[in-house]
């Protein structure tokens, strides 16, 4: 019987047990290796990455490659598509990915068919002749959920590759490779590493031939993580299930409280996870003031760390105009839920 995720997060990616072997992998700070081995040079591999990659593979399945950031992992996937290849992607999602896809579409690098991922039939109708379906679910920051089993099954029937950005749901909630997807992607920066001290990305890949192509892409584009960052990410991964479950429990409680708050007009929450997006009943300026008025919740972008963070997403010029000006994305951390709530209500009282 395979181990539970809570156990794998702690036991995976450790050195072999021999007398006096360390419990943790070493940080292999080296740019090159003595000849004769399978790695050869520091852009092709590193034992510290391998420990982290083995651990992520135990959580997501397949074989894993880590990258210098989540965007680097995503770019590697698009880099192996032929010039002008048609792909299907959500019309809203993480602004960095949306900007990349828009630029690829405009330049002709890819033909992107933008769809509403919540509308399953619309996504399936767009699949004919596509080279890849790129899915982010739940989406950032509106938290829309795609019907992954239905979409993956439809794509597979047509022989189309499917990649899923699993950053928000994490393998504790959904497992894209088990549903038949080809790639499960993470911004490791977020929940997997969990301490807002690392930028990193990963791709877990089911097919060995696809793994080899993406490994080559990483080697030759040089989008590799640093060994120290890999070690930090693995250290963070050990407590990922504890952190995620705690934050999720608090998020569910905060959703209840936010829903009945008179200054909140809408709460978005997919029923799982540690991200809550809500709309302030007021102007963009008032919403901005709320974010700037917290004393414990950090007014900062990013998510998935032990510390609660929030921001008004439209403060970023690249954020989609379909995201409401009054929308705050809250990443619920591991502080006591009552302290998070006190800070939210104090900040809301500032308007
Ligand atoms: C859903 C999602 N995917 C990908 C990324 C990009 O990851 P990174 O910032 O590690 O490059 C982010 C970053 O916020 C994200 O939220």
Structure summarized in a few sentences:
The protein has helices spanning 5-11, 47-60, 70-79, 95-107, 120-126, 148-157, 208-221, 227-237, 240-259, 284-292, 337-349, and strands spanning 63-67, 85-90, 110-115, 132-136, 161-165, 183-187, 201-205, 264-268, 275-280, 298-299, 309-312, 327-331.
Order of helices and strands: HHEHEHEHEHEEEHHHEEHEEEH
- Compute the number of helices: 11
Q: Could you say which structural class the secondary elements and strand pairing correspond to? A: alpha/beta
- Count of DSSP strands: 12
Mean pLDDT: 98
CATH class of the largest domain: Alpha Beta
Beta percentage is 15-25%
The CATH topology assignment of the largest domain is Aspartate Aminotransferase, domain 2
Descriptive notes:
By secondary structure, the protein is α/β, with parallel strands linked by helices. It folds into 2 domains: 5-237, Type I PLP-dependent aspartate aminotransferase-like (Major domain) (Aspartate Aminotransferase, domain 2), CATH 3.40.640.10; 240-349, Aspartate Aminotransferase, domain 1. Helix content is 36%, strand content 17%. The chain has 11 helices and 12 strands. A 7-stranded mixed beta sheet has the order 1-7-6-5-4-2-3, with helices on both faces. It has a 5-stranded mixed beta sheet with strand order 8-9-12-11-10, covered by helices on one side. Strand 2, helix 4 and strand 3 form a beta-alpha-beta unit. The model has no long low-confidence stretch (mean pLDDT 98). The structure holds pyridoxal-5'-phosphate. Pyridoxal-5'-phosphate is lined by residues 69-71, 94, 96, 136, 140, 165, 167-168, 187, 189, 199, 201.
């Amino acid at each position: 019987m395979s181990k539970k995720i809570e156990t794998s997060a702690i036991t995976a990616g450790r050195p072999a047990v021999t007398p006096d072997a360390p419990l943790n992998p070493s940080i292999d700070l080296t740019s090159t290796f003595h000849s004769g081995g399978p790695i050869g040079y520091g852009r092709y591999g590193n034992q510290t990455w391998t420990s982290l990659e083995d651990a992520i593979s135990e959580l997501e399945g397949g074989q894993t490659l880590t990258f210098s950031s989540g965007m680097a992992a995503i770019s590697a996937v698009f880099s192996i598509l032929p010039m002008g290849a048609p792909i299907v992607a959500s019309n809203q999602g993480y602004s960095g990915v949306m900007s990349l896809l828009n630029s690829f579409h405009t330049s002709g690098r890819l033909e992107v068919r933008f769809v509403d991922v919540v509308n399953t039939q619309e996504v399936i109708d767009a699949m004919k002749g596509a080279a890849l379906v790129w899915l982010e679910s739940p989406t950032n920051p509106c938290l829309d959920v795609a019907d992954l089993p239905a979409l993956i099954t439809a794509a597979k029937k047509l022989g189309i590759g499917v990649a899923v950005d699993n950053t928000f749901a994490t393998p504790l909630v959904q497992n894209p490779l088990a549903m038949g997807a080809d790639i499960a992607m993470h911004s490791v920066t977020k929940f997997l590493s969990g301490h807002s001290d690392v930028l990193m990305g990963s791709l877990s890949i089911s097919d060995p031939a696809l793994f080899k192509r993406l490994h080559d892409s990483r080697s030759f584009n040089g989008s590799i993580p640093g060994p120290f960052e890999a070690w930090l990410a693995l250290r963070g991964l050990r407590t990922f299930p504890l952190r995620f479950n705690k934050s999720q429990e608090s998020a569910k409680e905060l959703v209840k409280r936010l829903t009945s708050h008179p200054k909140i007009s809408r709460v978005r929450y997919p029923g799982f996870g540690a991200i809550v997006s809500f709309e302030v009943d007021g102007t963009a300026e008032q919403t901005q003031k709320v974010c700037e008025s917290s004393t414990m919740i950090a007014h900062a972008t990013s998510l998935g760390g032990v510390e609660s963070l929030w921001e008004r997403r439209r403060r970023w010029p690249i954020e989609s105009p379909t995201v409401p000006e009054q929308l705050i994305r809250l990443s619920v951390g591991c502080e006591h839920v009552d302290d998070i709530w006190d800070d939210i209500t104090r900040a809301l009282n500032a308007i």
